[in-house]
Design brief:
The chain is an alpha/beta fold and 228 residues long. The chain is built from ten helices and nine strands. Strands 3-2-1-7-8-9 form a six-stranded parallel beta sheet. The protein has a three-stranded antiparallel beta sheet with strand order 5-4-6, covered by helices on one side. Bound molecules: adenosine-5-diphosphoribose.
Length: 228
């Protein structure tokens, strides 16, 4: 199966794509959520309860991610986008590595480590400072990481656009996602129902593996290289 056989490709990516860049995944061996309780660091209640603690955690993540580089998997996806202009990326990742590898049309379903927002003034801004400073907006409220935390709802514009792209694609490639977080995990089904060819790239089986026509087992960068 080659990318050149398809015109409208959707890459649906998860933390496993960035694992080879040295960024820990969320689940499985060494996963973030085995070390940190998301209820203390990655939900609105925790942020309201102790914004400094949440920002200390996020500054650690920003520093760690900032030190990482995109890997060949990111680069291959960006290359496919250049060669096949109808190619889009729908990512659950917040690390910004797709953009740093040259990918252009990237829908960040779960937001970005590199964006912050003030919910009092309704402003959103890019911010790559490590550590993030100042932590407070000029209005006095804390800047909030523009990340979709647990119990947050996803941006409806992103969801609508993702639906449209998945309904009209002819190939959906899911890469490095455990397929257990909804509504994101439901999205590839839209492409399958529309008759697209479906590929799951993962080291292991996932709860949604049976839905995919093709399952490539191995590292994301190597499996993507095999489709060039
Ligand atoms: N190549 C391919 N797959 C890999 C690799 C690799 N090098 N390393 C790990 N994987 C796979 C794992 O087998 C696992 O199935 O990547 C997947 C990572 O799963 P998760 O850690 O659950 O990450 P993800 O699916 O992106 O999480 C979804 O959960 O915590 C929330 O909002 C967060 O966006 C995140 C969402």
């Amino acid at each position: 199966m080659r990318f050149s056989d398809y015109e409208r490709i959707v890459f649906f990516t998860g933390a496993g794509l960035s694992a080879e860049s040295g960024i820990p995944t969320y689940r499985g061996k060494g996963g973030m959520w085995s070390e940190y309780d998301y209820e203390d660091y990655a939900c609105e209640r925790a942020f309201r309860r102790d914004p400094e603690k949440v920002w200390d955690f996020h500054d650690k993540r920003r520093a760690a991610v900032f030190a990482c580089e995109p890997n060949d998997g990111h680069r291959i996806i960006a290359e496919v986008q250049r060669e096949r202009p109808g190619t889009v990326v729908i990512t659950q990742n917040i690390d910004g590595l797709h953009q740093r590898s040259g990918a252009t049309d990237v829908i960040e379903l779960h937001g970005s480590l590199w964006r912050v927002r003030c919910d009092r003034e309704h402003v959103v801004r890019d911010d790559a400072s490590v550590p993030m400073s100042p932590r407070k907006c000029s209005c006095g409220a804390y800047w909030r990481p523009d990340i979709v935390w647990f119990e947050d709802s996803l941006d409806q514009r992103n969801l609508r656009r993702a639906h449209e792209l998945l309904e009209s694609c002819d190939l959906v490639v899911s890469i490095g996602t455990s397929g257990v977080v909804y509504p994101a995990a439901d999205l590839p089904r839209i492409a399958m129902r529309s008759g697209a060819t479906s590929v799951e790239i993962n080291l292991d089986e996932t709860p949604v593996s049976a839905l995919y026509q093709h399952r490539l087992r191995g590292k994301a960068s190597e499996m993507l290289a095999s489709m060039r």
